[in-house]
């Protein structure tokens, strides 16, 4: 711990939230760094002048936000975590499972960022980045040659290429956003994407054009190919979604 946080007694009219805010601010201001333990629970209760229940509720909120980890047992306590995408992943996954994010929502959002990511990657990529992209592309081609038996493997590599492009872009927000999106859109693939060798071949060609544009440091072409790839992908999913919806309506009419 670099410097002990200057925690104050919690304000009586907002005790619970004030505890959360003070600890959160100490983390954001680097008074508490990743790996640091918060003061013991008893000390925190006395400092904030709060009950055990109030303190534990505040700590649970901070844990849910991904700011701390509560460890139990000998040597346990509340430990400050590195910032990560886990809470965002969980929130997006919940939205997807609840049906609040449509194929259109996901597609429209991806169209807005995938082109920019590829464009930036084409400017910032070094030779090791290019080598990694080409390695993934070669793995993708190998999976393509195996046919539908390698469908899941092919999709895994596709997502890795998109995540790698985001990392190469050098923009942390793009990197985190890409991770969150690609960690959670697989369920849309399973439901709306045609599982055919033709789709695999088309997808591979798109990825090949994107990687080549990045390798040749052509940002405008990288942007165009990435946007076209996502737009084509979204169009196919929307078509499948429309057929799926029509089938549900037809079945409902038949069984009335």
How would you sum up this structure, described in words?
This protein is 71% helix and 3% strand. The chain has helices spanning 15-28, 41-48, 52-64, 86-98, 103-124, 127-146, 151-168, 172-184, 186-192, 197-215, 219-254; strands spanning 68-71, 77-80. The radius of gyration is 24 Å and the shape is elongated. It is mainly alpha-helical and 256 residues long. The longest helix has 36 residues, at 219-254. The chain folds into 2 domains: 12-80, Arc Repressor Mutant, subunit A (Orthogonal Bundle), CATH 1.10.10.10; 86-254, GntR ligand-binding domain-like (Four Helix Bundle (Hemerythrin (Met), subunit A), Up-down Bundle). α4 (86-98) packs across α8, α7 (151-168) runs antiparallel to α8 (172-184) and α10 (197-215) packs antiparallel against α11. The protein has 11 helices and 2 strands. A two-stranded antiparallel ribbon has the order 1-2.
């Amino acid at each position: 711990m670099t410097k002990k946080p200057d925690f104050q007694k919690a304000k009586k009219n907002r005790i619970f939230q004030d505890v959360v805010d003070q600890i959160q601010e100490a983390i954001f201001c680097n008074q508490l760094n990743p790996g640091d333990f918060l003061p013991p629970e008893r000390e925190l209760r006395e400092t904030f002048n709060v009950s055990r229940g109030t303190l534990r509720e505040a700590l649970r909120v901070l844990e849910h936000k991904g700011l701390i980890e509560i460890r139990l047992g000998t040597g346990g306590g509340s430990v400050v975590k590195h910032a990560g995408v886990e809470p965002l992943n969980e929130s997006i996954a919940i939205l997807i499972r609840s049906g609040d994010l449509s194929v259109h929502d996901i597609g429209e959002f991806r169209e807005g960022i995938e082109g920019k990511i590829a464009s930036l990657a084409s400017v910032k990529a070094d030779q090791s980045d290019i080598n990694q992209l080409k390695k993934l592309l070669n793995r993708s081609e190998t999976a393509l040659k195996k046919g539908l038996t390698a469908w899941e493997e092919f999709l895994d590599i596709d997502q890795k290429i998109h995540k790698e492009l985001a990392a190469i872009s050098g923009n942390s927000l793009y990197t985190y956003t890409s991770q969150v999106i690609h960690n959670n859109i697989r369920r849309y693939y399973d439901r709306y994407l045609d599982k055919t060798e033709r789709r695999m071949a088309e997808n591979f060609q798109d990825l090949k054009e994107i990687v080549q544009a990045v390798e040749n440091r052509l940002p405008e072409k990288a942007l165009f190919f990435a946007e076209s790839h996502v737009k084509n992908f979204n169009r196919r999913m929307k078509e499948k979604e429309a057929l799926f919806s029509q089938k549900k309506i037809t079945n409902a009419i038949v069984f009335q």
